[in-house]
């Protein structure tokens, strides 16, 4: 009788293990993946705890324009692009709260393009990029509450209810998110280069008005400032180079005031095209993003600024930072594939 009971218990345990393994594989394969927000969220959890010194936050201007490989190779800065396409500041605030659970960065660099360009209280065009990839938590639920109208919540939560039917959409990348891929996934630092070359017209603008920041964006910018001060992190506000407009500048003028009121640095890099060395014929992917070559120039200019911070150490050669070397190799392989015409 005792042997029979043990046998039944072993069978139950075996079925439970099989069930859990099946669920793990199903979630790993079917979950939504994208290098314009989702993977940036998921990749954060792969980073060694308290290993990131500089975190870049904001929209796709961050993960397309700020090359983590350049920051590491030229300055030894352990940086991560923790961003999502068209990410509004209320989502950035909850990203920041999630970040602090795992990392204690010395500097947060926050790009301010979103509040200048997107004015509605609910930004649905790329909202999925900013939801999926983040672990379930109270902070995530609060982010959803601030970002999604109640009648539309079911379209984004729970995640598995949204992506469980992706069977016909599966690609090679969907089968590279298992535990044995952890080393490769750790090497991903958020940077997603663009490879197209599209000439742009250099903008000329002059705008003195300061009425472009919406009440909701201003509220969450001030919450971000308060949280970084509480955590003892230096917050640097920037605008990465793009084809800006006078309407955008109305927002940046107000942000300049808020930065001054709070003793923060705010750098609009659209005022430094020549210093960066940008070529409007070769360095842009479109009117909103730099391409790979433009991102290298901008990142080197940004890196020289970050290098001046005493709080940002040179980590090259230090134990535990090998994944940043791997990140450089990952980006170099993409460049080689582009040059060979084999980039997927």
Quick overview of this protein structure:
The chain is of the alpha/beta class and 344 residues long. It is built from 14 helices and 5 strands. 36% of the residues are buried.
Verbal overview:
- It is a single chain.
- The chain has 344 residues and is α/β, with parallel strands linked by helices.
- The chain is 46% helix and 7% strand.
- The protein has helices at residues 2-30, 38-44, 60-65, 68-75, 89-99, 113-117, 138-147, 159-163, 182-187, 215-231, 246-261, 273-276, 292-307, 322-340, and strands spanning 54-58, 79-83, 107-111, 234-239, 265-268.
- A five-stranded parallel sheet has the order 2-1-3-4-5, with helices on both faces.
- Helix 11 links the parallel strand 4 and strand 5.
- It is globular and about 90 Å long.
- The protein starts with a helix and ends with a helix.
- The model is unreliable at 22-27 and 164-168 (pLDDT under 50).
Q: What best-fitting shape do the alpha-carbon axes yield?
A: globular
Number of helices in the DSSP assignment: 14
From the N-terminal CA to the C-terminal CA, the straight-line distance is 60 Å
Count of β-strands: 5
Q: Whole-number radius of gyration? A: 22 Å
The pLDDT mean sits at: 89
Q: Strands of the largest sheet, in order across it?
A: 2-1-3-4-5
Largest sheet: 5 strands, parallel
Runs with pLDDT <50, length 5+?
A: 22-27, 164-168
Relative helix content:
40-55%
Task: Please indicate the percent range of residues in DSSP E strands (runs of 2 or more).
Answer: 5-15%
Secondary-structure content class:
alpha/beta
SSE string: HHEHHEHEHHHHHEHEHHH
